[in-house]
């Protein structure tokens, strides 16, 4: 099995990549059968972004802090673990954002697309789903759309729901909503297209971020699941992501 190893710059991750490349060698991304990531959740997501065009499965081992999306780090029996790993295919969100100067950018997000106020004043954001206005004005610090894989991250910190991997839904979650006070967000079918319109954009500027890509002073943001760009993450059979997401809902 040809393996491409990549690691973040912490001492733990660098020690791990030296150990594993000495044992298994190092193959270029284009020629590898699998990419092994050593680091945390951010390192894994960054690697997926960088290597998406190569369409290689990614197997992560935790050498970071949280490591929710990764397997435990064990340097022994790596080939056996890779051969016995189970694959999960995920689909990112595609963000199309337009700023006040008419500039447009597109970016993918594997966890979430989030909008955040840029100034001391709360943002005012209108929300439409599949072309139908659902919330004419949300006054808030921000709002986000999260995938099931990302539902345990920023979405959960903002009191959004944890979503089982097989649910085929997205989380639409406000961040510190002021009005309407009782609106806690919504669960959306995964095929839904979400449009955010920034109200009073000059007075209340807002930024939009898709994982690592940020655009400031946005006026309109469209978000939809991108079914043309699947990516595969590998998990040990006793450490499956769907089981851990389910278990997370019962953590004290």
Automatic annotation (TrEMBL):
The keyword Cell membrane appears for this protein: no
Active site as annotated: 41
Catalyzed chemical reaction(s): NAD(+) + ATP = ADP + NADP(+) + H(+)
Coiled coil feature spans: none
Domain of life: Bacteria
GO annotation, biological process: NAD+ metabolic process; NADP+ biosynthetic process
GO cellular component: cytoplasm
Keyword Glycosyltransferase listed: no
Recorded GO MF terms: ATP binding; metal ion binding; NAD binding; NAD+ kinase activity
EC number, as in UniProt: 2.7.1.23
Record keywords, A-Z: ATP-binding, Cytoplasm, Kinase, NAD, NADP, Nucleotide-binding, Transferase
InterPro entries: ATP-NAD_kinase_N (IPR017438), ATP-NAD_kinase_PpnK-typ_C (IPR017437), NAD/diacylglycerol_kinase_sf (IPR016064), NADK (IPR002504)
Transmembrane segments: none
Residues that hold NAD(+) according to the record: 41-42, 111-112, 141, 149, 152-157
Top-rank EC class of the record's enzyme: transferase
Entry's localization field: Cytoplasm
Role summary: Involved in the regulation of the intracellular balance of NAD and NADP, and is a key enzyme in the biosynthesis of NADP. Catalyzes specifically the phosphorylation on 2'-hydroxyl of the adenosine moiety of NAD to yield NADP.
NCBIfam families attached to this UniProt entry: PRK04761.1 (NF003406)
Family: Belongs to the NAD kinase family.
Protein name per its UniProtKB record: NAD kinase
Species this chain originates from: Micavibrio aeruginosavorus EPB
